[in-house]
Write a structure and sequence with these properties.
- Helices cover 80% and strands 0% of the residues.
- It has 120 residues and is an all-alpha fold.
- Helix 1 runs antiparallel to helix 2, helix 2 runs antiparallel to helix 3 and helix 3 packs antiparallel against helix 4.
Length: 120
């Protein structure tokens, strides 16, 4: 498994891009508590994928992926507040929600793959 590194995982790469997009969008937001919360939740998606990847077992990996999916839901919810509070435009929110739905779907697919692999 010489290729086995987190940097080669498509889902982690997508989470990294998404996290950077959230940071860019929130860079001028002066509501520091809100900004910190949405950024931490975005980072949590990426970090839980990485932690799970290195956890040593598929069942542990699945648990970390569940946490990452929960963080996806948290960020999605906060993106609507972001728009409500005029911290982002409707277009920015729609773009990030679309990215997030894709990311969450990828995490779900990876979970299903790991579960099926375990049962095989």
């Amino acid at each position: 498994m010489g290729n086995r590194s987190i940097e080669n995982m498509r889902i982690w790469q997508e989470a990294r891009v998404f996290t950077n997009d959230v940071y860019k969008m929130m860079s001028s937001c002066r509501d520091y508590g809100f900004r910190d919360q949405i950024q931490r939740a975005a980072v949590s998606i990426m970090n839980n994928i990485a932690e799970g990847f290195e956890s040593g077992s598929d069942s542990k990996f699945i648990n970390f992926l569940n946490i990452a999916k929960g963080s996806c839901s948290e960020v999605k919810s906060m993106l609507y507040l972001c728009e409500d509070f005029h911290y982002c435009t409707n277009k920015e929110r729609e773009y990030l929600v679309t990215e997030l739905v894709s990311l969450s779907g990828g995490i779900y697919n990876l979970m299903q793959y790991l579960k099926n692999k375990k049962e095989a």
